[in-house]
Amino acid sequence: MHETQVSPKDRFLTVYGRKPVLEALGDPGLRVDKVILADTARAPEIEQAARKARVQVQRASAHRVKVLAGNGKQDQGVLADVVAPRMRPLSAALSSAPLPPRVLVLDGITTPANVGMILRTATAAGIEGVVVPRRGVAALDPLVVKASAGVAFRAPVLRCATAAEAAGMLSDAGYRLYGLGASGGEPLFEADLPERAAFVLGGETAGVSDDVEELLTGWLSIPMPGEVESLNVSAAAAVLCFDLVRRETRRPDQR
């Protein structure tokens, strides 16, 4: 059963630590929903910045802040919920028109740097949806935001529970699903792609999970004539994203 209520995790990116929170409060291009301080934290500079930005400050126990931040070692007793205007549940994206024609699905990618770089690349390429499941993928935290150079706040993130759930929802919505593999698949640059397609990017070590692989239409591979077996997943995502840009540039009438 798919989500019917929008979770705060599908509306906000939570940043923690004094410096990231101060940077978010000082960025005029971002809207901070609230700041939460541990009841033991003394942070006059953050309270001042919040007042200046007209953002409410709430107090909570240190334990509660650690739970909300999801990182007990680096939260420094402070976190902020930053509004991510393009982030929404996958179910919402699939129940409204127009449907995003090209979607990336992250499946088991656990390195924050890879998730952040994929979000940056996909946003730059105009991809209209990147599925970042809440389980099995690196959390959308300050490490991801840093790797994306801040683009994560504005990326077209689609949320769901797992990659397998996303694959099922996309398949039901008429998407053809393709796994991006190191070898053995149809060469990406020669593939005839349908109007509506989702591309699954597997984890750094295990690749595409078995539950997701069962729903794939097929596999695509990136031709590599040099003596390299595979690319880092974020590099492979970049090749894929900009090949999609190339296709749209050559066929503007078919967008």
Give your account of this protein's structure.
The chain has nine helices and twelve strands. With 255 residues, it is of the alpha/beta class. The radius of gyration is 19 Å and the shape is elongated. The mean pLDDT is 91.
Percent of sequence in beta strands? 15-25%
Radius of gyration: 19 Å
Tell me the distance between the termini: 32 Å
Gross morphology is elongated
Based on DSSP secondary structure assignment, what is the total number of beta strands?
12
Strand order of the largest sheet: 5-8-7-6-11-9-12-10
Map the helices and strands.
Layout: E1 12-16, H1 18-26, E2 32-38, H2 44-53, E3 56-60, H3 62-69, E4 78-83, E5 88-89, H4 90-94, E6 102-107, H5 112-124, E7 130-131, H6 142-147, E8 157-159, H7 163-172, E9 176-181, E10 186-187, E11 197-202, H8 210-213, E12 218-221, H9 233-250
Parallel strand pairs: 2-3, 5-8, 6-7, 6-11, 7-8, 9-11, 9-12, 10-12
Antiparallel strand pairs: 1-4, 2-4
Compact description:
The protein is of the alpha/beta class and about 260 residues long.
Task: List the keywords.
single chain; 255 residues; alpha/beta; eight-stranded parallel sheet; four-stranded mixed sheet; 33% helix
